[in-house]
Amino acid sequence: MSAADRMKIQAVSGSLRANSTNSALVRAAGECADAEVDFAVFEGLDTLRHYSPELDRADVLPASVLEWRKQLASADGVLICTPEYAFGMPGSLKNALDWVVSSGELWRKPVAALSASPSALGGEKAHAALLLTLTALEAQTVEEASLTIAFSRSKVTPEGSVEDEATLAALKNSLDALVSAARLKNPI
User: Fold this and answer.
1) Dist CA 37 CA 57 (whole Å)
2) CA angle in degrees (0–180, nearest 5) for 119-125-126
3) Beta-strand runs (E) in 31-170
4) Residue 128: which of 118, 141, 119 has the closest Cα?
5) pLDDT at 1 over 80
6) Structural domains in the chain, sorted by start
């Protein structure tokens, strides 16, 4: 299979913590990817300046924003995993999504919305906030690919790997559903 025939999935963890459970879950999802899927994780969330319309112009657009937009634009599908902070998604993730409101990289693009929380509710309020923002961006949220992960800290080892079989199966199903939606939109 040539590189042109491969599906590209761009992922992002909404957490900036070094040993983030959400980041571990994103990495585990990538490890579930089939051979024909290129799975990349955006690592520059903490480099994005606060959104400002004055900076959203070609002559002054920050390089980190250009890279964020480029990675999203080249993806066939996007996987976003958010933690829950104060009943919502973290400001850094919301800021990243604000940077693509006017440029449209997520417009009608298949997206898997995941949330993970140490609580029994799996970050359902962050998940709802993420879904609302994706609706505003007119992303194609793939319902079968979206999930909440409760008691997330118990699913990840201290070394940062996911060994819980049910969680790995849910991540694999999520990624497979996202890739299927991306294939329907962009047949190889």
Assistant:
1) 33
2) 90
3) 37-41, 77-82, 110-116, 140-141, 147-149
4) 141
5) no
6) 3-185 (3.40.50.360)
